[in-house]
Write a structure and sequence with these properties.
The chain has 14 helices and no strands. With 293 residues, it is mainly alpha-helical. The mean pLDDT is 90.
Length: 293
């Protein structure tokens, strides 16, 4: 079980939970109620899809021989031989199948729009590392994270409840999108040496360490600008604690900007994932309080 937990990477799962919570808050503001069954299935489906993405990453990087002794990230169980290639492949297929089964009801509820988003999300879970054009190998990891863990997750979640695509959902979804892009950017900063050696053309490899450090901090700044926009445009005054939140994580941002590239960046990555969850929780609660007041 310990090896499977290493493969699933529980600390990263905040990235899938956070935007769903934000999408549910927006749907509640729009409808003044939530469909509990749809909300639970949406959350479960998002979690399973991210687990599938993590398993695919572990499996496919091992098959390609990308992971080596210079890698600073957490243990890759397939590359280390802790779980066999065949078992990891079967687990990936099973997880993608579960995500599809969970999504069937959501597709029925949401219609063509959710069918499109759902199938695209299943492809992304695999195509991030696999397929003929793996996104993470071609400098598109941060962009994909922004899209799928940001606007797509928030808009899809709210649409399942309201059957509308709103300006609020699109803009608010950019907040967790930028933070999820930061999580991937920190990951790629940490792995810049091993990725360069294995010809994995991430943004960090293409543009260098300095660029990647600045990209991480820029995405965090942009997430705060999204909150300011929501406060001013929609009068969600009670989301002001989110503006203070980055200062509570200042040591993490300073580490990303100035500290050496070493295994301590794993902690920075985990802290950024925690920041994402707190950001979405505070934004959700703040929007609902502002709506009710």
């Amino acid at each position: 079980m310990k090896n499977w937990m290493l493969a699933i990477r529980p600390k990263t799962l905040f990235a899938s939970i956070a935007p769903v919570l934000l999408g549910l808050a927006i749907a509640y503001i729009e409808n003044n109620h939530l469909n509990t069954l749809v909300a639970v299935l949406t959350l479960l489906c998002a979690l399973v899809l991210q687990i599938a993405s993590n398993l695919a990453n572990d499996y496919l990087d091992a098959v390609r021989g990308v992971d080596n002794e210079t890698r600073l990230g957490p243990t890759r169980v397939t590359s280390m031989g802790l779980i066999s290639v065949s078992k990891m492949k079967n687990a990936l297929i099973l997880t993608l199948g579960i995500a599809f089964l969970l999504g069937i009801y959501l597709m029925i509820v949401g219609g063509p729009f959710i069918i499109f988003i759902g199938l695209l999300s299943i492809y992304f879970a695999y195509g991030y590392t696999g397929g003929p054009f793996p996104l993470s190998y071609n400098g598109l990891g941060e962009t994909a994270a922004f899209i799928f863990f940001g606007p797509v997750a928030v808009v899809g979640t709210s649409f399942l409840q309201t059957h509308n695509v709103t300006h609020l959902a699109v803009i608010a979804g950019m907040g967790p999108g930028f933070i999820s892009a930061c999580i991937l950017a920190v990951n790629n900063l940490r792995d810049i040496v091993s990725d360069r050696e294995t010809n994995k053309r991430t943004l960090a490899v293409r543009f260098g360490e300095g660029f990647q450090r600045k990209l991480c901090i820029t995405t965090i700044a942009l997430s705060i600008l999204i909150c300011l926009y929501l406060m001013i445009t929609y009068h969600f005054v009670w989301i002001f604690p989110v503006i203070i939140l980055p200062f509570l994580f200042h040591k993490t941002w300073l580490q990303i900007l100035y500290k050496p590239i070493d295994s301590k960046l794993n902690q920075a990555l985990a802290r950024t994932a925690q920041y994402n969850l707190l950001y979405c929780l505070l934004t959700s609660v703040g929007m609902i309080i502002s709506f009710k007041v």
